[in-house]
Amino acid sequence: MREFRYERAADPASAVALLAAEPEGAFLGGGTNLVDLMKLGVATPDVLVDVRRLTSAEVAELPDGGLRIGAAVPNADLAADRRVRERFPVLSQALLAGASGQLRNRATTGGNLLQRTRCSYFTDVTRPCNKRSPGSGCGALQGVHRNHAVLGQTLEGPATCVATHPSDMAVALAALDAVIRVLGPDGEREVPMAELHRLPGDDATRDTTLRHGELVTAIDLPPLGMPSRYRKVRDRASFAFALVSIAAAVRVADGVVDDVRLAFGGVAHKPWRATTAEDALRGRPATEESFAAAADAELAAATPLRDNAFKVPLARNLVVRTLLQLTEGAR
Amino acid sequence: MDTQITLRVDGADHPLTVDTRTTLLDALRERLRITSPKKGCDHGQCGACTVLLDGRRVNSCLVLAVTVDDAEVITSDGLAAGGEHPLHRAFLDNDAFQCGYCTPGQVCSAAGVLAEARAGWPSTVTDDLTADEVDLTDDEIRDRMSGNLCRCAAYAHIVLAVAAVAEAEGVRR
Ligand SMILES: Cc1cc2nc3c(=O)[nH]c(=O)nc-3n(C[C@H](O)[C@H](O)[C@H](O)COP(=O)(O)OP(=O)(O)OC[C@H]3O[C@@H](n4cnc5c(N)ncnc54)[C@H](O)[C@@H]3O)c2cc1C
Ligand code: SF4
Ligand code: FES
Ligand code: FES
């Protein structure tokens, strides 16, 4: 591991100023991802600015009935928060489906959002990987990629990357239209969840649209007002990353879909908000047929790899099953 | 880069100079010779290094020692400090280990599971997310303990051991 200086700042603004002056430094949350990547030689910061006790560790009510989640709220506390369990069950369920009890106790909301991909070429410095070492190639493209992306990949050129974003929580936040509050050297800004994570495009090294030194201070959840649910399919029942997951919320009135939110995990470089499926569903009868047709419309854009085509029907079935469960009684 | 810290472990203060790269696990084992937390994977994947940090179970292999110099660390050794801990007794009575390598981590994790259940925290197998009380069924125990691997596969008896203490503590019906 590269040697580093460890810093605690007096307040968020000084943490941001500190890091702005350190091009190779990084913020440290719970460290459950960053320390791991430092051990592996994948992350090599020369300064760590500890922000775990700088940002808020509270979940607060917003005047509109939403919630503001401090970036330092541990994943375990957020999952157990009464208001989240009652008003945003999809978020509780997503968190509880991730990692282990020990990891959730230490991991923070900000760190979870910004965790890096689990692609095994990215985490092995002896392998080619455009995300870690631009232009070295993408080991996964022709290699072990059973759990890689089926949507929105970059399939040729120096930015080729077929990695997925590993966070369960982020999939729920995408469906919830969360707003990320960010403090940077130029002040505060708000980033809609849909604009936080990016596809590899022409630069596989960047997971998000944040700039160096920008600190996530909080995450705002607007009120939801419909039933919601997270489902995760994985190779074993617990303590495994998603093959495919879904965050869904739906409201049915008179047998017709009044409003719906759908986001996939495990299928792309970012949490995949399924807007095509949502558009296809609004105003349609809440039936198995419309759910399936909407999922098919979304997944028509899929470009699966040699060994992960199974994710496409899996995602489709997950949409149908989850929406059927959520609308039971209202159909 | 060397830094001065004080680690409070199992009730005793230990002033130490550590390189910032030192994990809590390595500080405990290599510097303080407190060896009940074990190193299985060093990557958060096995749970052998589990300790209680301010009362919450965490993987000490992913915690940098410099970040916890004001925290209270309790290891499996420390749980036994006031005599025998019910979890230690239950692991013995239920034959819940073979080689014992994962056991201190299992015990600390189980102590965390019991505290989380008392606090009413749900898990991914909890049917009613809004229920006030947790019932630590076998499925609940399996899910909540899934961050602790056992290479000897003593799982079936680990569930029995945790269930026995859960019942005695009123978090299992
Ligand atoms: C064995 C294992 C299994 C796991 N399984 C799952 C799983 O099934 N599902 C899942 O979703 N996750 C899983 N995880 C990942 C886990 O959820 C993340 O490691 C954790 O959420 C990261 O949070 P942290 O606070 O520890 O982040 P850190 O490791 O501290 O930081 C992660 C990144 O975020 C940056 N950062 C941290 N805080 C801020 C901030 N406030 N502002 C700006 N940047 C910040 C850091 O610089 C770093 O780049 C697993 C991890 C392990 C080790
Ligand atoms: S998929 Fe992305 S992260 Fe994985 S090897 Fe290819 S470029 Fe690297
Ligand atoms: S040694 Fe820490 S989890 Fe395996
Ligand atoms: S008893 Fe041997 S690893 Fe668990």
Question: What does this protein structure show overall?
Answer:
The complex is a heterodimer of chains A (331) and B (173). In chain A, α11 runs antiparallel to α12 (311-327). Chain A is an alpha+beta fold and 331 residues long. Chain A has a five-stranded antiparallel β-sheet. A four-stranded antiparallel β-sheet of chain A has the order 9-10-11-12, with helices on both faces. In chain A, strands 1-3-2 form a three-stranded parallel β-sheet, with helices on one face. Chain A has a domain at 228-327: Enolase-like, domain 1. Helix content of chain A is 28%, strand content 20%. In chain B, 33% of the residues lie in helices and 16% in strands. Chain B has helices spanning 24-31, 76-79, 86-93, 103-118, 138-144, 155-168; strands spanning 2-9, 12-19, 50-53, 56-59, 72-74. At the A-B interface, α2, α3, α4, α5 and α6 of A face β4, α4 and α5 of B. The complex binds flavin-adenine dinucleotide (FAD), iron/sulfur cluster and FE2/S2 (inorganic) cluster (2 copies). Residues 39-42, 44-49, 59, 61 of chain B line the site of one FE2/S2 (inorganic) cluster.
Task: Chart the SSEs and their pairings.
The complex is a heterodimer of chains A (331) and B (173).
Chain A: E1 5-8, H1 12-20, E2 26-28, H2 34-39, E3 47-50, E4 59-61, E5 67-70, H3 75-80, H4 82-87, H5 89-96, H6 101-106, H7 109-113, H8 139-142, H9 169-175, E6 179-184, E7 187-192, E8 215-221, E9 228-233, E10 244-253, E11 256-265, E12 272-273, H10 275-281, H11 288-299, H12 311-327
Helix pairs in contact in A: 5-9, 10-11, 11-12
Chain B: E1 2-9, E2 12-19, H1 24-31, E3 50-53, E4 56-59, E5 72-74, H2 76-79, H3 86-93, H4 103-118, H5 138-144, H6 155-168
Parallel strand pairs in B: 1-5
Antiparallel strand pairs in B: 1-2, 3-4, 3-5
Summarize the entry for a quick read.
By secondary structure, chain A is of the alpha+beta class. Chain A has helices at 12-20, 34-39, 75-80, 82-87, 89-96, 101-106, 109-113, 139-142, 169-175, 275-281, 288-299, 311-327; strands spanning 5-8, 26-28, 47-50, 59-61, 67-70, 179-184, 187-192, 215-221, 228-233, 244-253, 256-265, 272-273.
